[in-house]
Amino acid sequence: MKTKLKPIALLLALAALTPVTFAQEAKKEEKKPAATEKAAATPEPGSIAASLRDGATFSILTKALQVTELDVTLGTKGTYTVFAPTDEAFAKLPEGALDKLLLPENKEKLRSLLLYHVIPGSFALADLKNGELKTMNGEKVEVDVKSETKEVEDSKIFKADVVATNGVIHSIDKVMVPESLDGFAGLDEE
Description:
alpha+beta, FAS1 domain, 7 strands, FAS1_domain, Adhesion/Biosynth-related, signal
C-alpha cells in the first residue's frame, strides 16, 4: 500500500505547487509590459524630444510635451520640424494662461497648441520660404522670410537648424497661438 501512496502523494504535492508557480509567472508577465511602456516613453537619444529635454532653455516645453504625451511622438520615428518656444517665450504668455493649459481638463487644448509648432517633414532654415506651412494640428502658419530674419507667425527664429535624429528644431522667441485657441485664457491678447 505504501508504493501506491507515493505516486499519489507526489501528484498531490505537484498539484499544490502548480498554482504558486503560475502565480509567480503571472507576476513576472505583469512587470514586463510596465518596463516596456517606460522604455517606449523615454525619448530615443538624439531625437527631437531628447534634444529639447537636454536643452537648458526648454524645460516648460518639455513638461508640456510630457503632459500631452507628445514627447513619445517626438522621441521616436517620424520626421518633424519643431518651432520650439523657449522658457522666455512661455513667460510672455498672459498671466495664468500656461497654468490653465497644464490642467488635465485642458490637455487637448495644450496638445493643439503644441502641435501648432510642429510641421511634418524636415525643413532647415534655408528651406523655409515665404508662404504657409500646414502644422500637425491642421492649421497653417505663415512663414515670413526677410533679408536678415526669418519669422513664423511673428515669432523670430533666433537659433536654427538644431539637427535631431528625427528632424530639426528652430528656437523661437514667442509661443504661437492657433486661431482655434483665440480667447482661451487670454491667449489672443498681445
